[in-house]
Amino acid sequence: MLAESLVEWVCQLLAEGRLSQRSIALLTGVSRGTVGAIARGVRPLGLRPKYADDDPLRPSGPPARCRGCGGMVYMPCQLCRVRAARALERRLKTLSA
Fold this sequence. Notes:
Blueprint: H1 4-16, H2 21-28, H3 32-40, E1 64-65, E2 72-73, H4 78-96
Antiparallel strand pairs: 1-2
Helix pairs in contact: 1-2, 2-3
């Protein structure tokens, strides 16, 4: 994930119009595809969600491979948590029926 300051720098260079997207990519170290996405507005600023300091869902470190689903996620894996909750609901529903 790119730092917001880097995305802003790319936006500034694009707005100046003096450099090509390829030159901006080389200058900033960002891929040409990402520079193109920023230019098209596909990749907006502020993609990182804002979390409170005491939020239990706040990521604790860089993305890691989830042992449950195998995805690259910020731990704890929300997909596995939702799947477990749904499985529990289904079990409770079959037991009560």
